[in-house]
């Protein structure tokens, strides 16, 4: 009888340990669960594509967002990491691979590749924020990326821009919903970048974003610069894109807030 009771208790423990709702910061699970980007690339037809191939380098990522573990950024700068829910590759690699796929299929360049070769053009980037951000009683996926297009033959910067994107609220820190929200942000980043590069190819300097340098600081505060939401894609009316282009003055005036790391959170 005692043995039967112990077996029943063990069964209950096992059910509770695997029957969670997929929260990003649960108790320790039996094994890591991995996620990757999954979004439908929005078609974009540029009437004047570039006539030179481009090499895409793996993006660098500011700490502490350069980890496989899903990251939650709390108010006050505290950052926590999931011990169970992770990405299949570092964020910089995943974003670069997504852009390689979309640029290869979009017709902007004759070819786009991550493979090292002497390409005349080079696309590089740095991720400043890649997390689920808690703010104002809500949580949303946040992605901040700086991207540069360089003519390597002439050592000339053709394009520089920083994109800040935020998703609608993500309920209850659900890992699958966070992964889906971040995927949509990367898809929106890809679409906006292709729009900007098309403008650059047409010689629209006012839209090319070449007038200011990227910051050399380790990161950009998520709360900076008075960001406001705007709907970018009519076919995704429920999905808001936050994009802000920074001037040298606003960058120098903004001081990054310290980041506190939570150690040992599963």
Automatic annotation (TrEMBL):
<protein>
    <submittedName>
        <fullName>ABC-type uncharacterized transport system, auxiliary component</fullName>
    </submittedName>
</protein>
């Amino acid at each position: 009888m005692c043995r039967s009771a112990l077996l029943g208790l063990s069964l209950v423990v096992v059910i509770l340990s695997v029957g969670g709702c997929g929260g990003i910061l649960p108790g320790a699970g039996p094994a890591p669960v991995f996620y990757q980007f999954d979004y439908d690339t929005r078609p974009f037809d540029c009437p004047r594509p570039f006539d030179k191939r481009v090499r895409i380098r793996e993006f660098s990522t500011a700490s502490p967002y350069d980890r496989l573990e899903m990251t939650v950024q709390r108010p006050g700068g505290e950052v926590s990491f999931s011990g169970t829910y992770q990405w299949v590759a570092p964020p910089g690699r995943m974003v670069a691979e997504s852009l390689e796929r979309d640029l290869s299929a979009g017709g902007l360049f004759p070819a786009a590749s991550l493979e090292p070769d002497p390409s005349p053009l080079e696309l590089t980037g740095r991720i400043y924020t890649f997390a689920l951000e808690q703010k104002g009683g809500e949580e949303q996926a946040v992605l901040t990326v700086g991207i540069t297009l360089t003519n390597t033959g002439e050592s000339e910067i053709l394009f520089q821009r920083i994109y800040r994107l935020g998703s609608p609220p993500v309920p209850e820190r659900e890992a699958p919903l966070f992964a889906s929200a971040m995927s949509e942000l990367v898809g929106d980043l890809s679409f906006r970048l292709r729009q900007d590069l098309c403008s650059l190819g047409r010689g629209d300097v006012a839209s090319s974003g070449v007038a200011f340098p990227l910051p050399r600081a380790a990161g950009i505060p998520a709360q900076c610069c008075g960001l406001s939401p705007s709907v970018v894609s009519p076919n995704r009316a429920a999905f808001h894109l936050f994009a802000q282009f920074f001037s040298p003055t606003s960058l120098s005036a903004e001081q990054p807030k310290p980041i506190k790391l939570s150690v040992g959170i599963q």
